[in-house]
Amino acid sequence: MSDRHTVEVYDARAGDYEKANARLYELDDLEAFAARLPTGGRVLDLGCGPGFYAAKLAEWGFEADATDASAEMVARAARKPGVTAWQARFDELDAVGIYDGIWANFSLLHLPRVEMPEMLRRIRRAGKHGMALHVGLKLGEGEGPDGIGRFYAYYGEDELLGLLRDAGFEVIARRFGRGKGLDGSLSEHIVVLAHG
């Protein structure tokens, strides 16, 4: 996430966000993701928010790293048992071949569209051969602020699948949904499970 105002919104609303997302809406997706990981594998929750999904992966026996650009979100994630969390922007992901899976659940949507191809290459580089990747994004076109000023980039299904393919991923499964965001608006989304 490179937009300073988006980070400020998450710092200021971290408690609200944590309450609104305490129910793991993507738990079925997390189970499908975890099923593709080796026992005790190392995973990264990229743009982890308060760390709920990283904590669940740790509970299931995985080595769970978690990063977020928001200091408040990282502080909350770091308090979760078994989670190693640190503050980092997306462009600071420079690991090479260490992750069995990367979970990017509605986080990469805060990245400008022009930066997505390179970000997906960074993710692929950070993973081992055969890595699992989960990506959740909002469907639509263009980019810009939401109702509370967070930067969002929107994607179509074919566009996202093409970006993943170009970065070296093969899509295993996808699903569509509709949900309410922190700003109270309803939006359509896509969730993709892939491997590289």
Written as H for each helix and E for each strand, in order along the chain, the element string is HHHEHEHEEHEEEHEE
Largest sheet data: 7 strands, mixed
- In DSSP terms (H or I, runs of 4 or more residues), the helix count works out at 7
Residues in helices, as a percent range = 25-40%
Which structural category fits the helices and strands? Answer: alpha/beta
Radius of gyration: 15 Å
Mean pLDDT score: 92
Structure description:
The chain is α/β, with parallel strands linked by helices and 196 residues long. The protein is 31% helix and 32% strand. The protein has helices at residues 4-12, 14-20, 27-34, 52-59, 71-78, 116-126, 157-166, and strands at 42-46, 63-68, 83-87, 99-105, 127-138, 143-145, 151-153, 170-180, 186-195. A 7-stranded mixed beta sheet has the order 3-2-1-4-5-9-8. A two-stranded antiparallel ribbon has the order 6-7. Helix 6 (116-126) links the parallel strand 4 and strand 5 (127-138). The longest helix is centred in the middle third of the chain and has 11 residues, at 116-126. The chain is globular and about 40 Å long. The protein starts with a helix and ends with a strand.
Quick structural gist:
This protein is α/β, with parallel strands linked by helices and 196 residues long. It is 31% helix and 32% strand.
